[in-house]
Amino acid sequence: MSESERLRLPSLGYGAANVGNLFRALSDDESWAILEAAWDSGIRYFDTAPHYGLGLSERRLGAFLQTKPRDEYVLSTKVGRLLRPNPDHDGGLDTANDFHVRDDLQRVWDFSAAGIRASLDESRERLGIERIDLLYLHDPERHDLDLALAEALPALEQLRGDGEVSAIGIGSMVSEALAASVRSADLDLIMVAGRYTLLEQPAAADVLPACHETGTGIVAASVFNSGLLASSKPRRDGRYEYGQLPDELWERLLRIARVCADHDVPLPAAAIQFPLQSDVVRSVVVGGSRPAQLRQNAEYAALEIPGGLWDELADEGLIPA
Fold it and tell me: Which residues pair with 130 in a beta bridge?
């Protein structure tokens, strides 16, 4: 059975790391307003993870979605990291992982079948929602990719076979891990974070061909490349993943921005819609820490973009032809 038969995804989703206090603390009311803006803008796919704010994202998202009809949205979360009491907690925050929450819990890797099942059950409890549609293995290469291929992915296949979830996959920002997982397991969807964007497309070399061969769908995340593509006027001092933007990517970004301007297309609109030009990409997930960002992103996703923009970008070697 193909992924499209198991689970249909809306083309735009909200990645709920921000409501887990990513980069800055948000109140419950602020988080609710963000989620409400996403819903009011027509977003019906929501993605979260235990990693996001040590469970805070799941709790806040679940509280919100409990007020909505269950059949009107798609929900995904992730497994691989269990949350357990932190014996070294001294009143500090989880800022080493960029989350402004108390670090009274710690993440414990567990790729065993029992650990994967426990993670699903604990996510259900935090969300207050029994039915999770899509389950991703989160960042397997950061722990042990071989173990993930041997134990975690078969455990996910078993959960799907038992009817516990509709679809399974992995989420990663490493192309090699994504391609290896697609080729070794019967996955429905993979979340490709930052590896297939308007600015750079390393996943085009190995991940997209693997997905074409296996019928695996892609959810594109981090499509703004840490915010570089979130404005029509890029900034040279913008954050790029874990450091400064390399000169060659800065020059590439300027060229892309010029082509977008020539076609009167906002750069962020092109960034959101670019991945969907591939027939294996099912959805684009965007974040956002303010309601206005969610409304704007939904407008960008719906903006009509002339085909000539993609043609010119391809002709200049800025995106795959």
Answer: none
